[in-house]
Amino acid sequence: MPKHKSVRGASKRFRKTGTGKVKRKKAFLRHILTKKTTKNKRGLRKSGLIADSDMREIRDLLPYL
């Protein structure tokens, strides 16, 4: 049986944690930053987690994660 290829764009965006959850970077921190508050931008620096409802799609994109 052939191996499955990982989606390369997804493999650069997601990492697995020690407990098996999937980490991601938060959006909305690239441009138009002047109207966003410092508190808001500070919170966007932290990484987020993938929701349980999206885990099946991530597993299809990254079969070996």
Descriptive overview:
This protein is of the alpha+beta class and 65 residues long. The chain has a single domain (8-61), classed as Irregular (Factor Xa Inhibitor). Helices cover 32% and strands 11% of the residues. The chain has three helices and three strands. The protein has helices at 8-13, 38-45, 55-61, and strands at 15-16, 22-24, 48-49. A three-stranded antiparallel sheet has the order 1-2-3. Strand 1 and strand 2 (22-24) form a beta hairpin. The two termini are 19 Å apart.
Question: Number of DSSP helices?
Answer: 3
CATH class: Few Secondary Structures
Kindly report the average pLDDT value. Answer: 95
Number of domains: 1
Here the CATH topology equals Factor Xa Inhibitor
Strand content: 5-15%
CATH architectural grouping: Irregular
